[in-house]
Amino acid sequence: MRNSVIRRVLVGLVVGFSCLPATHGAQAGELVMFERPGCVYCRRFEQDVLPIYGRTDEGQRAPLRLVDLSDGVPADMALAAPVRFAPTFVLVDHGREIGRITGYASDEAFWGLLGALTDKLMPDRP
Questions:
Q1: Is there a smaller number of Cβ atoms within 10 Å at the N or the C end of the chain?
Q2: Rounded CA gap, 43 and 53, in Å?
Q3: Which residues form the signal peptide (predicted)?
Q4: pTM beyond cutoff 0.85
Q5: Per CATH, which fold does 2-118 belong to?
Q6: Residue 65 pLDDT > 80, yes or no?
């Protein structure tokens, strides 16, 4: 239990610091990663992608938020369908689901799928 709490705090710090440049100004898009404790594919994503996510174009357009799947859907978003598997990455724009990636196979597959999703984001208006 204690290791799980420590891991979530450390992951939160990495996500927070990696997304700092993206927090200036209003963000229309957000990538929400639904995860579960003990999820091997969630850990692989955290090792492969998380350290650089906030420095990428996609990370700038859609900062990452981690949500424990057992906590349910955050109140500030509306999903097109329930999330049943971890990890599931849901791209949200102004609180509404734009699309999702279910599962994590590799960083190459993730970046390709995410690029197609972030192309659907509306540009921020002044």
A1: C
A2: 14
A3: 1-28
A4: no
A5: Glutaredoxin (3.40.30)
A6: yes
Residue ranges of domains in the chain: 2-118
Check if the beta carbon of residue 72 is closer than 8 Å to that of residue 36.
Answer: no
Q: How far apart are CA 98 and CA 83, in angstroms?
A: 14
Sheet holding 29-35, edge to edge: 64-68, 29-35, 88-93, 96-102
Contact 61, 29 (CB under 8 A): yes
d(CA 111, CA 126): 28
Q: Phi, psi (5° rounding) for residue 29? A: -100, 155
At 121, the amino acid letter reads: L
Give the count of alpha carbons within 13 A of 42, CB side only: 20
Amino acid residing at 49: V
pLDDT in tens, 93-109: 988 999 999 999 999 99
Average pLDDT over residues 64-83: 94
